[in-house]
């Protein structure tokens, strides 16, 4: 599973950062960056929560 | 086509439909108790949305189910802009300034107009920036607690603490001198009170903007590390827009946070087992959802939400408190239970306008509760809950005063 973020959709609400801090960060413009594209299984639950929590639906999981 | 037909037949429209036979008056009263109105449960149990009657005479759709509220807040055919015919207002005279009157009032702009403002401000509200701000928030809170302790063994916690902390924090962030706190509080109060008149609102708006535009001229000459200076340096906004965006931050940052802090204080005093539990803050945000009717919308096209047809030009009020008490999303939703996971609440809205200040709020509430209960462990209510002065006339729900002793 690969974590994909759409920086153009991101509105910098930071839900991703507080929910899965090992996977997401915000750059100096406050926009999402994925710091761990292929998180370990243990992190995936938090990442799945982020798919729903991100208010601009900017995070997805790719099957590759 | 069978599936399609069923769907179309499943759409309600107001003429003759049972769910709209009763036109409800809105806002609702909630006498003697701070929780979201009990009638929301009835509204959620109805099919479709609730057609209601506002004090202005306008009729609007109330949205009370969690999924429907999220759907409204993310549908591109639904607008935040009072420029559209049919945009609702909850007060007698209408609450939301029009971005044509207050340029920079970006909560009432749709993308793409909205994005320029949001993008310019996001860097100052990231999780990291707010973490860096914690020591200065702590300083503000400590100072207020010093004041409480020095003044004796009783206080009005709203005046002396819960209204003061967010106001001091947002003023410092914007670079507004603390001495002018009373000036702003008096005018903001008029803007967030439903029964204010047009003239009162207009005058308060003009006075705030005039003050801010003078302050901006000062910051142009002598920039600091405050938000006004950041907005100036960004080059993304005109001077007028900076005044409007600053006014939005002042209002959005103060009334909501102050009220949630005060109501939460009551809950923690009555449920002391949760004092010091860091999960309490998120649950307090969900539980009170003080900005229940802050996110106002209008349909710019015919839209179906929750099986209800909304016609172009009809006003929509997604009620975040009703959504946050929807028991199909939150089990035992009317119970205060920090042990639950409440992270998906919509107290801060959802979609592109989701609260810019949300991490600041979390930090302020966390530091405020942690500090006050640690330093004043004997804190208790000085009057019974039923006698507390709730803000029934507020656009944002809260408390007018909170007598305590220790
Ligand atoms: C308990 C405290 C707070 C609550 C419950 C709250 C709630 C909300 C809600 C529901 C919205 C969405 C409005 C909409 O969709 O139309 C919003 C937007 C906003 N809030 Fe907050 N808020 C709080 C505190 C703050 C603070 C402390 C600040 C600032 C420093 C702030 C700044 C804003 C701004 C600027 C927006 C507009 C964002 C945009 O349009 O992109 N809020 N807030
Ligand atoms: S949660 Fe979504 S909108 Fe918020 S910072 Fe992360 S990607 Fe951006």
UniProtKB/TrEMBL annotation, chain A:
Keywords: 3Fe-4S, Electron transport, Iron, Iron-sulfur, Metal-binding, Transport. Pfam families: Fer4_13 (PF13370). GO terms for molecular function: 3 iron, 4 sulfur cluster binding; metal ion binding. It comes from the Bacteria. InterPro entries: Fe-S_cluster_ET. Its cofactor is [3Fe-4S] cluster. This is Ferredoxin. It comes from Phytohabitans suffuscus. The lineage of its organism: Bacteria, Bacillati, Actinomycetota, Actinomycetes, Micromonosporales. The gene is fer_1.
């Amino acid at each position: 599973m690969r974590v994909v973020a759409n920086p153009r959709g991101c509105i910098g609400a930071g839900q991703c950062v507080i929910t899965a801090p090992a996977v997401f960060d915000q750059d100096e413009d406050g926009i999402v960056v994925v710091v761990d594209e292929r998180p370990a299984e243990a992190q995936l639950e938090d990442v799945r929560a982020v798919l729903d929590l991100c208010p601009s639906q900017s995070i997805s999981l790719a099957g590759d | 086509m069978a599936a399609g037909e069923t769907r179309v037949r499943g759409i309600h429209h107001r003429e003759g439909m049972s769910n709209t036979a009763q036109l409800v008056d809105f806002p609702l009263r909630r006498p003697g108790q701070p929780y979201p109105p009990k009638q929301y449960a009835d509204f959620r149990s109805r099919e479709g949305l609730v057609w209601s009657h506002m004090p202005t005479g306008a009729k609007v759709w109330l949205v009370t189910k969690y999924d429907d509220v999220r759907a409204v807040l993310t549908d591109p055919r639904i607008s935040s802009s009072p420029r559209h015919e049919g945009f609702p207002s909850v007060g007698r005279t209408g609450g939301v300034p029009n971005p044509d009157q207050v340029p920079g009032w970006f909560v009432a702009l749709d993308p793409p107009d909205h994005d320029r403002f949001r993008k310019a401000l996001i860097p100052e509200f990231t999780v990291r920036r707010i973490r860096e701000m914690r020591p200065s928030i702590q300083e503000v809170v400590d100072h207020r607690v010093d004041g409480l302790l020095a003044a004796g063994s009783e206080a009005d916690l709203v005046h002396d603490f819960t209204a003061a902390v967010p106001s001091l924090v947002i003023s410092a962030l914007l670079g507004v001198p603390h001495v002018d706190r009373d000036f702003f509080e008096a005018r903001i109060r008029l803007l967030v009170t439903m029964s204010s008149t047009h003239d009162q609102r207009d005058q308060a708006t003009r006075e705030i903007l005039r003050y801010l535009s003078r302050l901006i001229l000062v910051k142009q000459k002598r920039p600091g590390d405050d938000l006004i200076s950041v907005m100036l340096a960004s080059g993304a906004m005109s001077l007028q827009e900076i005044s409007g965006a600053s006014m939005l931050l002042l209002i959005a940052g103060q009334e909501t946070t102050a009220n949630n802090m005060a109501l939460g204080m009551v809950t923690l005093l009555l449920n002391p087992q949760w004092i010091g539990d860091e999960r309490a803050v998120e649950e307090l945000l969900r539980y009170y959802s003080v900005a229940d009717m802050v996110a106002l919308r209008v349909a710019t096209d015919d839209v179906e939400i929750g099986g209800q047809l909304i016609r172009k030009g009809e006003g929509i009020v997604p009620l975040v408190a009703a959504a946050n008490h929807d028991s199909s999303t939150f089990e035992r939703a009317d119970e205060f239970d920090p042990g639950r996971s409440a992270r998906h609440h919509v107290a801060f809205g959802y979609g592109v306008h989701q609260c810019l200040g949300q991490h600041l709020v979390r930090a302020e509430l966390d530091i405020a509760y942690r500090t006050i209960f640690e330093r004043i462990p004997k804190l208790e209510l000085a009057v019974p809950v039923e006698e507390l002065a709730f803000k029934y006339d507020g656009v944002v729900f809260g408390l007018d005063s909170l007598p305590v002793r220790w």
